[in-house]
Amino acid sequence: MDTKLHHAIAEITEIASSFGLDYFPMRYEICPADIIYTFGAYGMPTRFTHWSFGKQFHKMKIQYDFGLSQIYELVINSNPCYAFLLDTNSLIQNKLIIAHVLAHCDFFKNNVRFSNTRRDMVESMTATAERIADYEMTYGKEEVESFLDAILAIQEHIDPSIIRPKLPDYNMDEEETEEVVRKTPYDDLWNMDQPADAKRISIPKRKKFPPSPEKDLLLFIQEYSRELEDWQRDILTMMREEMLYFWPQMETKIMNEGWASYWHQRILREMDLTTDETIEFAKLNANVVQPSPTSINPYYLGLKIFEDIENRYNNPTEEMMQQGVKPNSGREKIFEVREIESDISFIRNYLTKELVKQEDLYLFEKKKGNYEITDKDYENVRDQLVSMRTNGSFPYIVVEDGDYGKNGELYLKHGYEGTELDPHYLENVLPYIYQLWGRSVYMETVVDDKPTVYAYDGKKVSRKAI
Amino acid sequence: MRVSEKEEKQFVISQENWSLHRKGYQDQQRHMDKVKEAIKDNLPDLISEESIIMSNGRDVIKIPIRSLDEYKIRYNYDKTKHVGQGDGDSQVGDVIAKGSGEGEDGQGKGKQAGDQAGKDYYEAEVTIEELETALFKEMELPNLQQKEQMDIVTDKVEFNDIRKKGLMGNIDKKRTIITAIKRNAMKGKAEITPIHNDDLRFKTWDEVVKPESKAVVLAMMDTSGSMGAFEKYCARSFFFWMARFLRTKYETVEIEFIAHHTEAKVVSEEAFFSKGESGGTICSSAYLKALELIREKYNPVRYNIYPVHFSDGENMTSDNEKCIKLVNELMDISSMFGYGEVNAHSRYSTLMNTYKKIDNPKFRHYVLKENRDVYQALKSLFRKYETST
């Protein structure tokens, strides 16, 4: 084994600890490119088989082969924590990656969003992969693949709340008995000679199902679809588990990368680098935290916000001091932020007007065929960032009615907040939901400011304004 | 697995042998297979794609295959505001990226590909070659006759062997000298001379014999007033793929275009597909012309002949009997006789009705109702020769 690498890791680990980073025991695996990109595509060393992972792998591998990809960091939220190093990395590349992943690991371990994630997910996903492979043997590859296709299309629609009541036990039988008791329209004939107010018969209102809109589409289908076989329900359960595991990473992308970038810089500054290493590190670092005119680089934005917080809490204003902020409390503050915030609150609370101006952030949208800057107002930029990071950047969908038209049909509603859905994609997802639910599926959303319902009845997609 | 060292249990470094880990490649293969499947599923649409047919096959046309999207419920990118970052002096109104150029903001069909800002698009593309592979796999050359055997042509002479005996004019000096040096060296002398008779090496040739296979397509089409743009386009797509298909089987494939209404003449390809003429239809005129061409230029002994006739089925009733007779005559000297009828509205067709009586495995016909049927027609006309019929 490379002793230089070993010494470097020991040194970085020591520096990280002295800064107060708190991480799981680390496990560094050195692998060739095709392996590291395989893991990257699947998000895990072992995961179930699906062509979409193969497509992703192919894409990443091509970029690597063409020399287009930057250095690649891959770290798994688990205990012990797995990090993967490319066997062709230079020593300085490895130093940067190791410092970076240590901070990620600290984040996994300490951020509250991750408090419920299973740290044994590596083993769990291996078991899932084996189970799904078994189902492939029993029910056929095509059958399983087609089912996975359908789930993958909606897998983000879960309820990832940290504290969440169990799915209420709505009893569908109960509802039916109530319908039986319902009086006939002719009942009032028998009551003709009764006083007038007694004539009013209270017809029990049909119980809503679900009683209140349900965010967890996956769980709802898993519990109430009449279409699914046991093995399918099993796969659905496992896939939902996996999504719950990945979810915190989706909602802390900016923070997590910012935190890791902040620390790899600080840690490497403490190290004795040769001149060549210093130059190479500066280049690598510049690549990682490069801003982009058409998107937000989470590494860069996250880093800038953390640095800004540290700065402001090191040199608090009068007003801040009155609120109890002590000078030079910046470091302490950012540790607190990394513990309690997620991207949404991080941006809402800490992306200041000055920072938006300093970093030249703006809003752009498509105008006459081109993408054009349309707004530089600080609040609008901040709010748009927040809204695009809401719900892991996915549209917010709820189950409105699981017995629509009293026919067991599924009525979904998009929580429209000014951003329309991609109609082409929606039209292709509805058949997947139909496949899982077994009856007509509806999606209420807004198109051109008009409430609109898309429907799929097993044959074709239709769309109408309501 | 080889775990090297442990230090204070804080970290472990390991390097395993991953050579058996093929998962990424396996699923990649599955993805490729799905691309091919998608091509196959879309064949009927793809092969009548106008950009291909009109290109005459000269250009490499790429057709995006889009069925490999992983569909999710997502936002309409073009109707959303996005956040970007400038280098300090950005202004409202600055253009930061070109759109896909697909109209205004469109109906947000979401299909537009290209250099969209912040978009991660994946599109598999298929070249004509790939299409051919997929299409021709489903086609067979019916009734292939063994003409190649009679057409053996000595192509050229290749010097491809070295022997100890031969004509002095063909001596291989280099090899002769090398042999001599070797032999002398064995006796301890580093010299070329003397050169013995035994050292001589001669180049020898082989006659390379290549069978020459030739085919000719006699493309006949009714250009009377009743054949509209759609009918002609179907015929054109058909002939395009047919000629390409035959080229994979024969060394040379020629195409003769015979246009006819009440009389037939040999025309250029361009005229064949573009010019329309008014008047009635006498199909037998085309068949007569075809027979005449065969007599003059395409001796059936040397050529595999493929007469294919496209029509809308309207023929002068009195001409039908004559047609049958001529078709039979053509079939005697051809590998196959194809009849494609473009009949979108299922009209009663006098010609088709007559041809129903033909009972000969060489006679192949198909009725096309829409563009996509070109694919079915190709498959039907070039299905395997069934000996049972």
What is this structure's SSE topology?
The complex is a heterodimer of chains A (about 475) and B (about 400).
Chain A: H1 3-19, E1 26-31, H2 33-42, H3 51-65, E2 74-76, E3 81-86, H4 91-110, H5 121-139, H6 141-154, H7 172-181, H8 187-190, H9 217-224, H10 230-250, H11 253-269, H12 275-288, H13 298-314, H14 318-322, H15 330-340, H16 343-350, H17 353-358, E4 361-367, E5 370-375, H18 378-389, E6 397-404, E7 409-414, H19 423-437, E8 441-447, E9 450-456, E10 461-465
Parallel strand pairs in A: 1-3, 7-8
Antiparallel strand pairs in A: 2-3, 4-5, 6-7, 8-9, 9-10
Chain B: E1 3-7, E2 11-14, H1 23-41, H2 43-47, H3 50-55, E3 63-65, E4 82-85, E5 95-98, E6 124-126, H4 128-136, E7 152-163, H5 173-186, E8 202-211, E9 214-222, H6 229-249, E10 252-260, E11 264-267, H7 269-274, H8 284-296, E12 303-311, H9 320-333, E13 337-342, H10 350-355, E14 363-368, H11 373-381
Parallel strand pairs in B: 9-10, 9-12, 12-13, 13-14
Antiparallel strand pairs in B: 1-2, 3-6, 7-8, 10-11
Organism (chain A): Psychrobacillus lasiicapitis
Protein name (chain A): SpoVR family protein
